Amino acid sequence: MTITGIAAIGAGLAAIGAGVGIGKIGGSAMEAMARQPEMHGKIQSSALILAAFVEAVALFGVVVAFLQG
Amino acid sequence: MLVNSFNVRTFAPNLKQGIFKPIRMRISTFKNIILSTLFLTVFNIGFASGTKEGGDDEKFDPKEMILHHVKDAYGMHIATLNQGKENEFHLTIPLPVIVYTDKGLTTFSSSAFHHDYHGHEIVERNGQRFVNVHEKVYVLDEGANQVAFDAEGHPTNAHRPKFDLSITRNVFMMWVSIAVLFLIFLTAARRYKKSDDNVPSGIASFVEPLVVFVRDEIARPMIGEHKYKRYMPYLLTIFFFIWINNIFGLIPILNGANLSGNIAFTFTLAAITFIITTFSGNKNYWKHIFWMPGVPVPMKIFLMPIEIIGMFVKPISLMIRLFANITAGHVIILALMSLIFVFKTVAIAPVSVAFSLFITVIEVIVTAIQAYIFTILSALYFGMATEEEHH
Question: Which SUPFAM superfamilies is this protein grouped with (chain A) (predicted)?
């Protein structure tokens, strides 16, 4: 397998990780919002920030894959 | 859901003044977005076809096409008319190439390259020969008449000039966005000066909710009631600057001037955030980095290098996040367009167009979300740096 193929697999794994992470954040945020609608705004902005953190790690992986591929 | 609440909260201050105005505004804005995306997507197809190089025999390389579109370039190429015919015509906005070499400063228009980026067109200026290899100007060595490439496609008998200060399309787009921002905000400021009761009108009624949003949703909760005012100018600047550049990146007629998808651009913004964070760090902040309070001494020593790395990782992740998000959006749209040429059939076109329309609409949301994330994380770091001890 060439390095490009391995890089593509790496990018895929990074996407899976980010998907699981952001999915969990989104799900929990939804639950929390349903339970406490008055906290809607605060929960949403913290969920967005956390999603950004998770995404950043995945994007590191994607960028490395880009550089290798 | 995201967009909705974003809008509702953005326009919340307006609700007090009249509930119907913002709602009407929202509907018409939405309609405008849909219409303009539809229009722009049609243009996109024009582009993808315009970028097909060579005849039918030549294999279409989506990777090269995409990289060429995402990267910076000398001159803005808008369209190719009569492609492959005798009267082939490139519709471009030529931009100045400014290079500093051993022989001093040389300037010429990028139109001298005749839209060639394979190193075929040789431009002779000031006793030197310049070629454009994949949108990078190279100076040919003495006596060389043609660029020679090694196996990886790097020129072997040419070198980069000492300094390349060219006004590339990214620089040009940055100036355009600065001009647009100045226009919007100076007009808004004039509106406030004219009105007696400080009620926003015209463009100011569009700007005010956004400014209030940055203040009440980003600066105040993240930095704190007492200190947020110092950081407001910077936060507002990056919020609007990133947002408008993200939006400009989505306009296909500008050939995807991918400014916020340029790592140098995001690096500069992240570096400014890093500098401000470092200089506004108080005693408490530095104590948490070098000698973490409340943990045993071995743990303090163990945490110190981690915290020091964390200091640098924060701006680096800011840089990568914006760069990768915006670039990924462009790559996806272009990849969907290349499907038509990879499969060499018109039948795939409706799928391509539908999907790229979908992605473009998502990208419109992403432009705002990424500007918001960059701003709120900067505010968060400023807040961490200025937080007072509380025991």
Answer: F1F0 ATP synthase subunit C
